[in-house]
Amino acid sequence: MLKQVYRVIILLIIFAASLYYFSKDIKEVVFNIDNTTSMEETSFPLVTLKTEGKIINVLHGYSSNLDANSIREALLPIGPNQSYEVLIDQKEYDIKKLNFELRDFVNNDLIEKGSVSVFDEDKGKKIAKINFNIDFKKDKEYAVKITLITSESRKMYYYHRIKKHDRTYLTDKLDFVMGFHEAIKDKVKAEEYIRYLEPDSKKDNSTLANVNIHSSFDLITWGSLKPEFITEVIPTVVENYTDVASFVLDYVISANVSGIPELYKVKEYYRIRYSADRMYLLNYERRMEAFFDVQLASVSKSQLKLGITDEPFTPYLASPDKKKFAFVRSRELWFYNLEDNEIVRVFSFRQKNTDYIRDIYDQHDIKILNMDAEGNIYFMVYGYMNRGQYEGRVALVMYEYVRTEGRIEEKVYIPLDEPYQTLKESIGEFAYVSSFDIFYFHIYNSIYSYNLITGQLTVLADNIDKNDVVTFYDEGYVAWQESSNPLDANSISIMNIETGDIKSINAIKGYKVLLLDKINSNLIYGYVYEDDITVLIDGTTVVPMRRIEISTTDREVLKPYHKDGYYITGIEVKDNIIELFRTTQQEIDGRKIFTPTVNDYIMNQSIEKKTYLNMVTRVTEAALTEYYLELPSGFVMNELPDILYTVNTVISADPTLRLPKDSNYYVEDDKSSSVSNLYYTFIHGELKGAYYEASDAIAKADEGVGVVMSSTKKPVWERGVKANKNIIAHFEEVKLSPTPNSMDACIKLLADYTGNNIDNTDFDLNETSAYDVLINYLDAEPIRLTGTALDQVLYYVSKDRPVIAMTGHSDAVLIYGYDTYNIFLIDPSQGKTVKLGIQDSTQLFEKAGNVFISYLSQ
User: Fold this and answer.
1) pLDDT tens, 356-382?
2) Which of 255-287 are b and which e, b meaning 16 or more Cβ less than 10 Å from the residue's Cβ?
3) Which 3 state secondary structure label does DSSP give 102?
4) Closest Cα partner for 749 from 704, 804, 791?
5) Nearby residues of 709 by Cβ (< 8 Å), 6 or more positions away
């Protein structure tokens, strides 16, 4: 008996000693929660600009010191006097000084700087007068950074573009725009503007969400809505040329549609042409979005009202038991507990005492990452921070919503140095927080994992474009290609997003493997023989895959596809059908030539997925078409849900995570001497897409009446500014002997024109592309315009920049002029200049694949 007592005592001593020993090696992570608080209200001043007696361009302040040329938010046209006024609505601050910098828009070099410490005052605003002394280049854009310094030495930054004209005609243009805007509030007054409209009977006139120049007169004049204008309407100048200009009006209205005043954010877009005789309305659009309001829910039908909207799609995520869900609407995150009929506004910058300008500034977004069974949510907010401790900063902030305590807790703060417009194109779809406290995210072509406990940041993959990542959240997996450079794509990684375990699909020797897409819960990828990867004469890389496979995330191949003599250059997934874009291959004059052929299709088993939430529409006389979010089947909303609000957790730990400095958004391509450029399409002053091919960006801009900028800040293409005719006189006198090497001759002609001397013995087009030759020998930045229509390409000739155009597999001409009916070109094979009709030349270039090369402004 005594031995048993001793044995128990010894075991207890060993157990206690073990606890003591091991506890010394366990790092206890304590997040000291000091208290909870509400988010601080907006405080930054608002800035507007005044020129030619007109107040324009509402500017929002940044506390992040961004590059002045990174923001295209507003343009200030100035005349010969080169001066304007800055109007400062100080809000919560006392502004003591203003610094200004004028910078080159392309390279951000400082050109001129100055300061103002003596202000005029008018109607509660401080006014600073800025006058530039430099000799502006006419019609060239510059970047301006304005720094406001407070009495407490705090700095806030404001940005805009500036362009000098001999005559801006800004007053006339603005008078027309604001006259139109005011007139359409009254159907009688609006009749004087009927002649500017272009009504089209095919246009859908059933919604106020998207109205344009082709809509009915009744719709353009607000139908039966009777809006009340809540905010002052100050125009923003988006683009301005001597005759053509684009403006945006951004404001908030209220309308009594269902017995309760409803709020709407409205954006009007005008594109006009000035002439001495009259104004021309080239384009008019008005987009209208209802603010989400729980009080407007339809109790009888168990539906949440979205109202008038052009974007009814509502991102949401349901809990595993389907009794709770979170959704994002009007840049606010909401959580709905169906069992208790409670709805929580989890996150919003909108404040109770709103001015409808600063707190609802729409340069950010919210992404739901995941939600557990209890309703706790991880989510991230990225872009411009409208208020709170990060007011004015650009960042990515990841939060946790702790449901039982009604609070949100900041987990990670990542400061960023670019505006939301380009940031949103840099963030990939993949983002998740695992149950092991690992935060995964994809940004700037790198996939990161960040341990929330230890603070360790790991790069899982880099050089990965967001199009080369496929997510399977329901199945718990993500897959990515080893590199977006096909020559380095040796494997595909498939990661379990909970455990972090990674499996690979490896390419066999001599091949590369490319992740293409997904269909249902399966991967689609293709194998390309390394020697088949070809750079065409225009620098385009062709990746002709010989085999396609569909497999599970467990790497079980479900269906292979291969047909002798055919290569797959791309795919498109439509429902349960995979369309394969195919080519055949031949070799001509030492170069591989790929010829598109008939597409093929793979049918996949159709799987019907039930949607948790559904959209329905209703039509009323006042609001016309409105959208509602239909709650899950079986749920009955007996009364309006209780509305709750979260508080912010104040923690003592620093959540800042700084990304490596070499993070960038470019994908390196070793097959070419260049680094892939990005082309940004701006429509109505907003970035609508980033593309690796200029032709894709131009097509988008042409459709939306926009402009294209390169990631090097150079203008690529502008809709509607091409002159009616232009001939580059330099080439009229060029003497040339006939030569069979027409592309070599075109390269030399273009280089000579730009002041670069190239000897034809310096390169061999059987070994490199014409595009890479120009990159290596041209001081200017070459641009591949392959796939762009001739009419769009002539923009370059209009700007006195010749264009190389292919007329066959290896034959080329140089376009140096055009008029209404003809183009003028140099044909080296004939050794002379040639005039060719527009229609004939269009057909000639289309037959050759619309292969064009030019260069951007120097």
Assistant:
1) 999 999 999 999 999 999 999 999 999
2) bebeeeebbbbbbbbbbbebeeeebebbbbbbb
3) strand
4) 804
5) 72, 679, 680, 682, 715, 716
CA distance 60 to 83: 21
**Backbone φ and ψ of 613, nearest 5°:** -120, 145
Average pLDDT, the chain: 92
- In the chain, CATH 3.10.450 covers 170-290
Q: Are 124 and 23 in contact (CB under 8 A)?
A: no
Is the per-residue pLDDT at 25 higher than 50? no
Q: Which residues contact 11 (CB under 8 A, 6 or more apart)?
A: none
Q: What architecture (CATH level 2) is domain 726-855?
A: Alpha-Beta Complex (3.90)
Q: Which helix (H) or strand (E) holds 175?
A: helix 170-183
Beta carbons of 422 and 622 less than 8 angstroms apart: no
Q: Hey, is 214 helix, strand or coil?
A: coil
Sole residue written with tokens 């030759």:
773
> Cα 727 to chain center, whole Å?
36
Average of per-residue pLDDT across 565-590: 92
Long-range contacts at 531-536 (CB < 8 A, ≥ 24 apart): 532/567, 532/585, 532/592, 533/486, 533/487, 533/671, 534/592, 534/594, 535/671, 535/672, 535/768, 535/769, 535/772, 536/591, 536/769, 536/851
CATH of 46-164, one of 2.60.40.10, 2.60.40.420, 2.115.10.20, 1.20.1250.20: 2.60.40.10
CATH class of this structure's domain 170-290? alpha beta
DSSP lists the bridge partners of residue 212 as: 285
Note whether 414 and 396 are within 8 A (CB): yes
Q: Can you point out the beta strands (E) in 539-608? A: 541-542, 547-551, 557-561, 567-574, 577-588, 591-596, 600-603
| 217-262: pLDDT as tens digits | 999 999 999 999 999 999 999 999 999 999 999 999 999 988 889 9
Using a 10 angstrom Cβ sphere, with 0-12 exposed, 13-18 middle and 19 or more buried, the burial of residue 510 is: exposed
Q: For residue 18, what pLDDT is reported?
A: 46
In DSSP terms, which residues pair with 650 in a beta bridge?
A: 35
Q: How confident is the model at residue 763 (pLDDT cuts 50, 70, 90)?
A: confident
Tokens 């796939």, located at residue: 787
Which stretch of DSSP H or E encloses residue 447?
A: strand 446-451
* Exposure letters 125-145 (e unless 16+ CB within 10 A, then b): bbebebebeeebeeeebbbbb
CB of 668 within 8 A of CB of 51? no
* pLDDT on residue 81: 93
Token representation of residue 315: 């991102």
Where does residue 232 rank: exposed (0-12), middle (13-18), buried (19+ CB within 10 A)? exposed
| Strand pairing report for 852-855 and 803-806 | antiparallel
- DSSP label of 545: B
* CB neighbours of residue 515 within 10 Å: 25
Angle at 632 between CA 630 and CA 634, to 5 degrees: 120
- Type of residue numbered 129: K
Residues of the chain with CATH 3.90.70.10: 726-855
Distances (CA, A) of 86 to 54, 118, 128, 249, 588: 12, 12, 5, 19, 63
680-723: per-residue pLDDT in tens? 999 999 999 999 999 999 999 999 999 999 999 999 999 988 99
Report how far residue 335's alpha carbon sits from residue 596's, in angstroms, rounded to the nearest whole number. 50
Summarize pLDDT for 5-17 with one digit per residue, the tens: 445 455 455 455 4
Q: Please name every residue paired with 53 in a beta bridge, in sequence order, or none if there are none.
A: none
- Going by DSSP bridges, is the β-strand pair 647-651/407-415 parallel, antiparallel, or unpaired? parallel
460, 461, 556, 573, 712 from 551: Cα distances, Å: 23, 22, 5, 15, 40
